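RECORD TYPE: protein structure
NAME: DNA polymerase LigD, polymerase domain protein
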Amino acid sequence: MAVKTTGTITVQGERLSISNPDRVLWPEAGITKLRYLEKLAELAPHLIRHCEGRYLTVIRYPNGIHGKSFYQKNAPEPLPPFVRTAEQNGIRYVVLDSLPTLIWLGNLACLEFHASFDRIGEPLRPTEWVIDLDPSREEEPRIMEAAWLAGELLRSLGIASVPKTSGATGVQIVVPVEPDLTFDELRAIGRFVGEYLVSRHPKLFTIERLKKNRGDLIYFDYLQHYAGKTLSAPYTPRARPAASVSTPLTWDEVRADVRPADFNLHTIGPRLARLGDLLERAPKQNLRPIFEFIRRRQG
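PREDICTED:
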């Protein structure tokens, strides 16, 4: 029988209890809880940047990625005094805005961090537009081809974007935007782009919502980007055997057909040291001219 151990660490002046530091969370990748917390500290400046100011949902795996898991929206109890929360629709969400909060969540075996598209206490004008390319099968060798084609179409419309791995099987395309259009207006752009891609590449893309009706096609999901919905945050780890991390990519990497599993807790630190956060450098864009063009076109 495993022996439970507990230690304490001080993080930015806050004293935290760490339980079971030797528990293996990712067996295939050889990552224990203690190693995970070290990696979270490495990811912290970037992961926190993309989660703060948003409603946070976590997925907890108390016994590692092969054990039982559960989603948690309401802030876990007991709540340390340094952890801030925000309420929405009767749910008290954790506000991920500090390293102590992140390490506290990591100690609770929160292995995935999913941030809302809407921001806490702000009008419903999104600051990014996100397309989610979701494969219908577990292994999808065409996912980077699909991302490249979607990116090429956006470029033809004058829209610069940043692809990122979901950390699982999919790819998301992120467009930082000026907070001008509504979620519904951005959805209209997404539908236009998705329908065009389906018409040009009917053996690759679908906008069919029901998974059972998609066959082996890649779902061009323009509906997920909406108030109250979440997506894997940039730089969140994922509960996958490779300990993959949702990672922004260059378009050259997409064209080279990189493997999402290559971006993981072991490799993300050197990558960030070399490239920094590709999303942070992406300029915000004004998509209103595109929206007005589509609106006029559709009558």
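COMMENT: The first strand starts at residue 6 and ends at 11.
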